Amino acid sequence: MKRNIQLTALAVALSSASATAAIDARSFAMGGTGVSNANFLTSSFHNPALAARYSDSDDFGMILPTINVRAHDSGDLVTSIDNFSDAFDRWDESNGSDDQAKQEWIDALSAMDGEIVNADVSTGMVVAIPNRYLSANFFAMVNASVIAAPSVDDSDFNITDPDEELKSSVLGLGAGTVDIGITLARELQVDALPGRLYLGVSPKFQQLLALGYSASAEDADDDDFDFDDANTSTGFNLDIGLAYDINDQIQLGFSAKNLIENTLETNSYTGVNGSSTNATYVVGPEYVIGASYQTKLFAVSADFDINEKKYFEEIDYATQFARVGAEFDAWSWAQIRAGYSMSLNDHSEDMITAGLGLKLFGTAGIDLSAGYGSDNNYGVAAQFIMQL
What we know:
Blueprint: H1 7-15, H2 25-29, H3 43-46, E1 61-73, H4 77-93, H5 99-112, E2 117-129, E3 135-151, E4 169-188, E5 196-216, E6 231-245, E7 250-257, E8 262-265, E9 269-270, E10 276-277, E11 280-283, E12 286-294, E13 298-305, E14 309-310, E15 318-319, E16 321-330, E17 334-343, E18 351-360, E19 364-373, E20 377-387
Antiparallel strand pairs: 1-2, 1-20, 2-3, 3-4, 4-5, 5-6, 6-7, 7-12, 8-11, 9-10, 12-13, 13-16, 14-15, 16-17, 17-18, 18-19, 19-20
């Protein structure tokens, strides 16, 4: 019997890291905030309007690259897989005579039923040219999400021989977007408003990728889960943003991303009931509001997701967060950051984040950040920046 019943469930999810919302490393460290407190260089990831908010000394900026990886194993599938494998090894070595090992194997198999692993990966680059006429950012970003889970067949609990074939299977769904576009923004002069108002838009070419995967226990192989096999479609999408500086310390922001809803079916795969099926990847509007307060040495910010972000039409899985963050800035040379993201539904977990920024002579530098949450929820991010 092939004992790697759902080893692929974890491998599929985590292998996507070699292949989600694009969040730069500074924002990641600050709990994911950015709608009101992103700078002109990271505005394409959070709020297009902020491309027009820059200082007199800013003439050019570049991020090459930014990358973040997040994985969530809410049911502790890693431990269940280890227990499953160890128990089967003992049962197999005893030629089926070790009843205790068999029972431990059955218990581990039962523990895997219904568990889900998901992972998000994003990477991107930006070239920014701020100016008083029409600030422009050229950007490219890739987002990938994977959800994988065991599908345990009850008949496998009744097998009596280690060489008997399992009926349980591996199910995995992967999806992603490739965005290439330009952010255009400028400050608007409104006499009735005492502060500064910014408006931005990011038209973009967008490619969708969607992949369904299923395999029996004996055939499961994580190498078979490859985004090169995904269905693809291409089209156009649009992000818009609005920002308002009440004064030099208090800022407000609103962003609407992916205003044009696009869907893409995966390739056909074998579902839980054994019949051929498809899943439908969804890229739809995401609305976020935010507020921030900042001085030369200190900043705090908060973002709120107005709506849930759904991944697949057929799967009851979506994310929605409220976020807060803070940053201490030592004369533009070094920054210490911390944040917290709170899940607003039962599908995700809260996460604590922290990070460090180092910028040589205030121009070139690196940002590093990491996050941790309960139920095996981890994340890391890094980026290289240049700002002139």
